[in-house]
Amino acid sequence: MKTPETREKDEIKKYLKSIGAWFIVTRMTGYGTGGQPDIVGILPGGQGFTVEVKREGKEPTPRQEMRMEEVRAAGGWAFAGTAERVIGDLQTLRAVQATKAIPALRFYELTSELMPGNIHPCPACSRMFKDGETCHMGGCPMGGDF
Hints:
This protein has about 150 residues and is an alpha+beta fold.
């Protein structure tokens, strides 16, 4: 029987396959580093990424947030949330990169002029959101409307 998080993970994997991303799904066995992401991969075009899959209403743990920051500090993308949220962020990133022919930049390096419609980057944590939305990433220092 699949758990709610497994169903979310399956949706994300299906999307990643559809765009031609290379990825692996990690499994904790009691060994290794705590806070490892659920999915590690490379997007078409060569940008590394990780995904911390969460069911509705759940946020990454402090240790998972720390690992996500390590990925971002190394120049990669770190996504977290439900399938809907993660796939939406990936679609936004890909749309911006395709329409503007820009290299794989981190979300906060993009300016509002590059974003389609009313979508904006959080300058602190890389999360994309629409006008009037709040950055909901746990531990985000901005944590407010922009």
